[in-house]
Amino acid sequence: MKKINLLMIGFLTMATIISGCSMFGLDKQVDYEFQKNILDAHINKSAKQYLLDRGKNPIVPNDTIFKWMQLGLEYAGIDLAEYEKPGRTFVFLKNEAIRVLPTRTTNGVLVTTSNVPTAGMWFSFPLVSKNTDGTLKLKTDGSVDGVPVKNWSDYPKEDVRNFFLSLIALENYGFENGTTTNSSLPTLLPSGTSATDKSLLGWYLAGTTPNLNVSGDRILNRVNSLTPGQVYGFDPESRLNFRIVSSDYSPLRYNDATNAATAGLLATNGQIHVFGALIYPWRY
C-alpha cells in the first residue's frame, strides 16, 4: 500500500508540473517552423572606415580589435587611402594576430603581467642576432637567440610597410568566387621584395612552388644562413593565396596556414577577411 501511495504521489507531482507550465505562463512544447535567415555581410562603409571605427579611437568604447593594425600602418607610413580604393581584398589583423600578452585574474579583474608577447607576430618573428660569419645566432639548445618585439618601432620600418602592402590584394575575392583550390591574387607589395635580416621574418626562405609534407601540410623553411638572390619573408611574386575550407567557423584559409576569424565582410570598396592568429606573408 505504501508503494502504491508513493507511485500515486509521483504521478500527481508530475501532473502538477506539466499543468503548471500553463499556470505560470510557460506553454507546453508546440511545433515550431524554423525560419532560415542569412546574415547580411554588408558593412555599408569603406574598409578604411571599418578599420578606424574599431581601431585606436573606436565608435563603441573598448572595441579596439584593430588598434595594433592601425598603429602598424601609421608606423609604416601607409596612406589609409589605399583602404578606400575599389575592387580590392583586404586582410585585416585582430590585435591577437600581432601580439598576445600574458595575463592573470586578480580579484575578478584580468590584468596584464608582462609586456613581452607570448604569441602573435611579435612573438614568432623576434629580433635576431648574427654570428661574426653572418649566420643566424642560435642558443645552445638550437633555438633562435632572439629578442622579443614589444612595439612596431622595434622592426625596421620597411619590413612593416612591406608586410602590410602584402595584405592588400588587387582583386576582389570572397565566397561568391572562391573555390576549394587556391586562388593567387596580386598584392601591392613589389615583386621580389625580401624582408631584412633584422628579425626572424627575414630568415624564412620563400619559394614559388608548393612545399608540402607527405600529409599535405605546408612546410616552413627557416634557414640559418642567407643566400644572395633569394627572397626571404615575403612572396617572391607578390601574391597571396586564398581558398575555401570545410570549417563551420573559419571557412577561408590564407596561404595554406591560417584560417580567417571572420571572412567575407562586404565593404563598399571590396571585401575584408579578418584573422586572429599569426599569418605567414608568403605562399610557399
List the keywords.
284 residues, alpha+beta, FAS1 domain, 4-stranded mixed β-sheet, 4-stranded antiparallel β-sheet, 6 helices, 12 strands, 20% helix, globular, disordered N terminus
Give an overview in words:
- Strands 6-1-12-11 form a four-stranded mixed sheet.
- The protein has six helices and twelve strands.
- 27% of the residues are buried.
- With 284 residues, it is α+β, with helices and mostly antiparallel strands.
- The protein has one domain: FAS1 domain, CATH 2.30.180.
- It is globular, with a radius of gyration of 26 Å.
- Strand 11 and strand 12 form a beta hairpin.
- Looking at CATH, the homologous superfamily is FAS1 domain
Number of domains: 1
What's the helical proportion of residues? 10-25%
User: Structural class given helices, strands, pairing?
Assistant: alpha+beta
Corresponding CATH architecture: Roll
Poorly predicted sequence stretches spanning 5 or more consecutive residues: 1-24
Q: How would you summarize the topology of this molecule?
A:
Blueprint (H helix, E strand, L loop, with lengths): L1 H22 L23 H7 L13 H10 L11 E6 L1 H4 L4 E4 L2 E4 L8 H4 L2 E2 L17 E2 L9 H9 L2 E2 L13 E4 L52 E6 L7 E3 L3 E2 L2 E6 L2 E6 L9
Parallel strand pairs: 1-12
Antiparallel strand pairs: 1-6, 2-3, 4-5, 7-8, 8-9, 9-10, 11-12
Helix pairs in contact: 3-6
